[in-house]
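Duplicate of #3305? Posting structure anyway:
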């Protein structure tokens, strides 16, 4: 709890009804907690709008100006940054905000991402042909690698060449498995021959994992109470499930 707050009490608020109130330490003033939050949110929005107007009201790259939530402030020199100017605004004094705004440019969120991508990768990529010598076309900025799971060749950006080892999330999932999963035919046979707990011990996985395997293969599992039934009843249920 902030130092300015001495205690919290429940009291009736004209706007929010019975709710928690803070007693300010210095003045002793009692204020509704929800009213304080609303006042802070309102001030953030006012300062955000004021900051956008101070910087011209539109993106300096594409001149976008439709939605103020999509307009952001980019620090030209990150080393000179004292505090962040978030998309929801700040609650500092206007004088300190103006000093920070003078270090920034106003851009839309899309242009902002492009700026940071170019700074991080030292190069810009494009999906379509361009005459700009500073932009590398999509195909020229890619390299080929071999998936460690399926041994198929796949194409990635140069910037990803050290990180990517698998061609897809599915291959990554297969490679991350701690135990080898049985085939559909093997699992379908074992599910109706052994209880799930015994299967989980056999493959050293949880019973939930066995259920997920069966769901993935679309294999029906024995109903509750199946293993307590007689052999004849088990066979009858099995014939009903598989329509024999």
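Output from current build:
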């Amino acid at each position: 709890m902030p130092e300015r707050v001495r205690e919290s009490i429940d009291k009736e608020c004209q706007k929010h009804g019975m709710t928690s109130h803070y007693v300010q330490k210095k003045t002793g003033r009692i204020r509704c907690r929800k009213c304080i939050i609303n006042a802070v949110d309102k001030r953030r929005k006012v300062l955000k709008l004021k900051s956008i107007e101070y910087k011209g009201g539109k993106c300096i790259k594409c001149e976008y100006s439709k939605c103020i939530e999509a307009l952001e402030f980019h620090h030209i020199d990150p080393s000179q940054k004292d505090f962040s100017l978030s998309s929801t605004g700040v609650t500092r004094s206007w004088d300190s905000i103006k000093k920070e705004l003078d270090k920034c440019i106003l851009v839309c969120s899309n242009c902002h991402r492009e700026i940071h991508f170019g700074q991080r990768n030292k190069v810009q990529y494009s999906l379509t042909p361009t005459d700009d010598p500073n932009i590398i076309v999509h195909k020229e900025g890619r390299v080929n690698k071999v998936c460690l799971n399926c041994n198929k060749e796949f194409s990635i950006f140069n910037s990803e060449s050290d990180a990517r080892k698998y061609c897809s999330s599915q291959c990554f999932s297969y490679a991350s498995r701690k135990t080898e999963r049985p085939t559909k035919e093997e699992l379908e046979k074992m599910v109706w021959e052994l209880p799930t707990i015994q299967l989980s011990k056999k493959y050293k996985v949880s019973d939930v994992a066995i259920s997920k395997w069966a769901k993935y293969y679309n294999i029906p599992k024995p109903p509750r109470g199946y293993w307590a039934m007689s052999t004849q009843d088990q066979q009858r249920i099995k014939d009903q499930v598989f329509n024999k």
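Confirmed duplicate; merging threads. DSSP finds eight helices and nine strands in the chain. Confidence is low (pLDDT under 50) at residues 1-5, 135-140.
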